[in-house]
Amino acid sequence: MNPECFRPQEIALDVDVEDSRHALATAAIYVSDANALDAECVFRALWRREQASSTALGDGIAIPHARISGIAAPLTFYLRTRDAIAFDAPDHKPVSHILVILVPADGDPEAHLQLLAWIAAKFSEPAFRASLAAAKNAAEVDRVFGARRWHAAQSPGREWSPAQTRQCGRWCRRRQRRRRPPTSLQSLAPVTKMRSLARLPQCGR
């Protein structure tokens, strides 16, 4: 995936979620529904990564990400919550913009790092975040991501320091700590009903 051509493949706006775990469960269902993946597997991978350390960047943004088997290219999903939720952000601000990235388990780690860093730089622009917040539908969100003025990841005047952008690199390199497995998706009362899908093989653990 060329970062400069990046647009989320799936978009959901003003979604009602209770907390970060519910948000990830909802994202797992959307992504799995669209790509014939196992929702339980996707949720488990995202939640395991989130327990290792928060993927919130600050300023109302989180970029949950995980490696999974059964895909050949990155999958992306943008979710805007109806109400901002706690996400253990470094600035302690609640999160309303969530961009989920799933990459192949055997993919290039450096490509993953570049994608994360580029997206973090994009979200560092206050005007970009404001445009996303004001978008009324998925088509408008797609236009915001595709706007030429956001394609320069190193544009001047951004609010975040280089250290904040480099946080994405630390995500890719940090070893995941083994944690107690989360509860199943069924216990989270997902807001979207799953269709009957042809499931891919179980994700690697």
Total helical elements? 6
Report the oligomer: single chain
The number of strands is: 6
How is the biggest beta sheet arranged?
6 strands, mixed
Helix content: 25-40%
Task: Return the string of H and E elements.
Answer: EHHEEEEEHHHH
- Shape from CA axes? globular
Query: Could you tell me the mean pLDDT?
Result: 76
Low-confidence stretches: 150-202
**If you compute it from the alpha carbons, what radius of gyration comes out, rounded to the nearest whole angstrom?**
16 Å
Structural class: alpha/beta
Strand percentage lies at 15-25%
Could you explain the architecture of this structure?
The chain contains six helices and six strands. The protein is α/β, with parallel strands linked by helices and 205 residues long. Strands 1, 2, 3, 4, 5 and 6 form a six-stranded mixed beta sheet that branches.
